[in-house]
Amino acid sequence: MVNDGWVLECIECGNRLDVDPKLFFCPKCKNLLQLLAPDSVLPNELFCDQFGELRVWRYRRTLPVSIKAEPVTLNEGGTPLIRSIHLSEETEAEELYIKAEGENPTGSFKDRGMTVTVTRAKESGAKTLVCASTGNTAASLAAYAARSGLKAAVILPAGKVASGKLVQAFVHGAQLIRVGGNFDKALGMTTELVSENDGLYLVNSVNPYRVEGQKTVSYELFEQLGRRVPDYVVLPVGNAGNISAVWKGFKELKSWGVTQRLPKLIGVQAAGAAPIVEMIASGRSQIKPWSSPATIASAISIGNPASWRKALTAIRESGGTAIAVSDKEIVQARMDLASKEGLFVENASAAPVAALRRLRRSLNKRSVIVCIATGHGLKDQDTIDWDPKSAPIAEDKKGLAKLILA
User: Fold this and answer.
1) Using CA atoms, how far apart are residues 206 and 195, in angstroms rounded to an integer?
2) Which end of the chain is more exposed for a tag (fewer CB within 10 A), N or C?
């Protein structure tokens, strides 16, 4: 039994429904559903010390699972908020921070949503968890399924996933299945299959429980900034669930009276996979899917984002924008984060820093800016142009000294 007061609401027609752990789409208009939190969450309880350290389950009162449910957790959340030293000067930002979500247990932000989703799935009697994935969701699902004792099946777009993410799903025991085509095709096939089989439970971001876990990053940012709301949150956008989760978290803080301010959200896509950027730039309210998305940032190589309506709402309501950056800019930003700030992130995670370089003249120089780095660099090594055999060899101490002191 989920916490009292929660309801499902269609993001398009507003249809309200009783909570159902397997209901993701509106029966009337077929659009995505979202969970609405009850009014019973009290501001003075939200950040109470009795809820423990900075982790996802610190905010249990705001999550749609039974109070009695045992969380399926790997101690996710509580990721570092690191203040930039060198890149802040370059981007002329007074306060620039990187939220290092790659420090989650499986190396990406997906763990926030997965802990809540798998807890709810287990509570509802699910046996086999299923997802389509470009990599990070696969790794996270496999780990949390292993932790929960449930089976996991991962559907992958063949040739479109970084090997560092695949190996995680493999070692955690998930069944890996490849399909021809891109992520959008894989998700469509998976969603259809799940709808036809009661024994399967979908954990992609169309599942509103994923969003509920991922929104906790906003609560953490508020706490880590000394109970302040940043002026801008900049984050990569692929299937578009995370940007809506960030917005939901901050809106809840305001609705509960914790803060009166909201940030502007800047969604960043790769130039080779930018249907949301194109939609906003054209002024349209409907997305035009890209049939052949192509970018070095595999995590956001998605041409038909399932949560585009949620993303559009988040960007427009916040007064933000969406911007596309080239693969060249992404690669440069990734290397700069590593060499200048000591942060190794995957390609998609570098996109927000690349975007800041484009936007620096339009942003207030006194702004507090948070870039969300969604995944660790060790998950995405295939695209780094480096050969370990290229390192010089020292035969003795004299040779070693010559190389170092040259």
Assistant:
1) 13
2) C
Q: How far apart are CA 263 and CA 351, in angstroms?
A: 19
For residue 327, which amino acid is it?
D
CATH architecture of 81-107+210-379: 3-Layer(aba) Sandwich (3.40)
How far is the C-alpha of 391 from the C-alpha of 379, rounded, in Å?
23
Instruction: Give the model's confidence band at 43: pLDDT under 50 very low, under 70 low, under 90 confident, else very high.
Output: low
Question: What is the per-residue pLDDT across 185-220, written as a single tens digit (0 to 9) for each?
Answer: 888 899 898 888 888 999 998 999 999 999 999 999
Query: pLDDT tens, 112-128?
Result: 999 999 999 999 899 99
Exposed e or buried b per residue across 163-191, where buried means at least 16 C-beta atoms within 10 angstroms of its C-beta: ebbbebbbebebebeebeebbbbbbeebb
How far apart (Å, rounded) are the C-alpha atoms in residues 159 and 157?
6
Backbone angles phi, psi at 295, to 5 degrees: -160, 155
What's the token pair of residue 297? 């940032």
Share of the chain above pLDDT 90, in %: 68
Domain boundaries, the chain: 81-107+210-379
**Listing from the earlier edge strand, what are the strands of the sheet with 33-36?**
16-17, 7-10, 33-36
Identify the burial level of 95 via C-beta atoms within 10 angstroms of its C-beta, where 0-12 means exposed, 13-18 middle and 19 or more buried: middle
CB of 105 closer than 8 Å to CB of 75: yes
